[in-house]
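Possible regression after last week's pipeline update?

I re-ran a chain I had predicted before the update to compare outputs. Posting the input and the new output here so someone can diff against the archived version. Not blocking, just want to make sure nothing changed silently.
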Amino acid sequence: MIVEFGWFLDRAPWAYASPGLNRVRVGRKNLIGLLQTRLGLTRAETPSAERVSQYLATLEHLDSPDAWFHDSLHADAWSTAYDLLAARDDAVANGWRGDLPDESAREDTHARASTERGPAHDGGPSPLLRTLAAAERAGRGPERSGGTGGGLAPSLADDVVELLDELESSPLPLGIDELVLQHPEETFPAVWRRIIGALRDRGVRVSEAPQPTGEPELTVLSAETEWEAAEHAARWLAAGGDGGGDSGANASTAVVCSDPTPVLDQYLTMHGLPRLGVGERSVWRAQDALIPLFFELVWEPANVHLLAEFLTLPDSPVRRRAARHLLRALTREPGTRGPEWERAIADIGADESLGPDLAAQLDRTFSTHLLLDVEHRRPTGGQLVEAASWFAAALNARAAVVPRLQTTSAQLKRILALVAPLRHVSRKDLRRIVASVVTADAEPILPAEAALWLRLNHLVELGEDVEDALWWGFQSASTPRVRRWDAHDAATLARVGVELPSPQDLTALAVRETLAAAGRCKRLVIVQIAQRNGERVDSNPLLEALVERYGRAPAVGDGSPSVGGGSSSVAERIAKATRGPSDLTDADGVWRLAGRTAQLRRADAARPSAPDPVQEVGANTALAPETLSYSQLDVLLGCSMRWALERKGGLRVPDAADIPEGSRMIGSFAHRVIEELHAMLRPQHRAVPTDTEIRAVIDTLVPQLASELLLPGQKARRLTVEAAVRQAASTFFGMLEQGGIVLQEVEQEFSKDLPLVTSDGVVAVPVRGAADAVGIDSDGRTVVIDLKWYNSAKYLREKVRKGTALQLALYQWALHEGDAPPDDPTAYYLLKQHAFASAHGHFGPAIPREETPAQLWGRAVRSAEFTIEQVLGGRVTATKPVEDAFAEQAKASTAPGEQPKTIEDVETAVGRLYVQPGCRFCHFGALCGLKGDYS
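New output (post-update):
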């Protein structure tokens, strides 16, 4: 057998143009695997997370208050073990056997003295090396007290040392005739030179592959975005033909993919070419997000937004019907401890297809048995395993019928096995363990397809001559990184025969091999982009090395700019080799790039037009509203298209996206505080609560209605909100008492028919809802107050001043007999500002108004009649685009006399109420052309 061996060839194909029997191309990992197979040294591979867990146990065994790593271990145990294990493996991979220079070595079984804090550069080994050596001795020693073995499962790093020993002592034949080195033997790290020497001693002929002598024509395709680059890269490949006969240039083409290719694959499909199928690494794929999301949900306090995300994942183990009950509860009360949550759990238990057992498990998992991440109260590994018991069982059951979840189920079992023996587990520890087991997956959206070209991950993997090469994702191309050792540690290890390769040497080797691989193509096209996802993309310094070696100097007088004063500087050569999309097509429509051409045809111009804001859907009596609330009436008068889409089309945002947050959440929370305080005061015939009572109600309601304020990092915000709500409640009840108003009901429900006259007759629509606060003043008049949490009071004060507070007028109309509302006291209470906005003197200084409630209500009824007649006739209107178009026409109009300039002017002139469309809160902006790209 002939083995081609290079430092970067582990992912390289064995052969492409000239395949042959008994000839393989391997890198470090594959050569070790080949030799282990021949020497009978193969073993099961131990996952990295399990080795970190084993090393963590060793460090805990060595730990003491004076240990060098004690503080780090206490702050972040898993990361400390991970970093030290990485240092240990790097040293072992270069031939270290756990020993230190003789003058520093000590045979202390527990090695506590050797890990104590001390000077790092006192002539002896550093605390890092002493710790690693102590851990090696502990790992080789007898079982520790308590029955825990100290062994560390071997890895690829340990295989190097074992392989050196076996090559020198094993009598088994290797079956290797020749080892062909891709680069000179002296460029390999020292330990690999020893392995190569051991193979030579066993009769393997060692030779070096001839270095390429070609000089490729270098072209840099520089595009602004990935999409622009993909268009031209795909066109270049399409211009290479399909490989039929002698004209298929792609049959001798290498495509290097150092970046994901979903965008490029789309353009390749448009040209009828096979997909490359390189996926982007992501931990947010549905099946990969299950475990990280779940383990964020087992901690107190509950994160309702992550819970909603978990419930709506495609592969969520929570059954759909149960998830809908829980999501509805979260949209009403964003917490897992309130009446709505309990009602949802009861509904799940009462559902015959779900049952009480599932209800109890969900309640226990996500509400009543959450774990605390508090010092001295952290859960044990066993408690965490118990908290995940339902999830493990449910996931295992789903994996039996959904094959893609089998890997996820196995990962969960591995995590629980790692967690179970731990004495204490913090949220940080658990995150580290989960991240070690659930790694980013690079599964493509669509798989790769068979193609004539050779696909590589990095140009350094190219081992045979090709005509052309396209390097996609050049700026992301990199070679494996190596650990940077302190110079003192490197010198210490050198004294025991361990020569560590420097990052500079390995980087130089990577550059050398990339330049050599470039010499195997006649034409090399490097694809560069300026930005990705709106962020600038850094250049790859490898470009300078390629251009310096292969770039052609600009010819004298060719117009190329001179940079740096030299006629052939690297910058000038890069500029000479660079082609932009605008440089590729001539006046005749012929596109040229790196020896390939294509004839382009100019596409017919097509200007996208905005959707019609007025839609004719045909007359239909079914479009009449069944009921109206104030919010529905406000939407209907403001934008009949939005109302039709919501109420008749049934379009709405998913429950997971409708969970209250921000001002909406705080407003609901403040409403409920007022409601609970009134329920407590009314039986006692009291008007004003004490500060202690307000605080108690707030403390009770925060987990139910504002649980996000309890999350880590939210303390300052929570204290601010609680103080604001506390002051708002105190001021509200106090000012009502001062104004002589007795609060009778909070959230008082009402229902009253609203007769609307249309051309087809009278339509009676029930108006239903609940008034926030209803009371009575000293004159026996009904007082209505609406509670609002707004960042600014200006908008509501302006509504009161103009007399357009339709909500207050509607409440007075609904709570009284007759067709028009009485002029009884009404007010907005501004929770955030702790103030009332009213045209009546009961609440402080009255705001003069321009219109009475009866006048306002008359105009609102006429607007409702007009709009409903339009809707029944099949005409629905997106108000904002119509307003904008009307304003533009009015601005350009030259008609004589006073003309209306806005839709509001038109509506007011005919005696109807203008209601501003609530576009800020509408989710259908893309349908009427206000948002997005309507092309």
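Follow-up from reviewer: compared with the archived run. The CA atoms of residues 538 and 797 lie 52 Å apart. Marking as no regression found.
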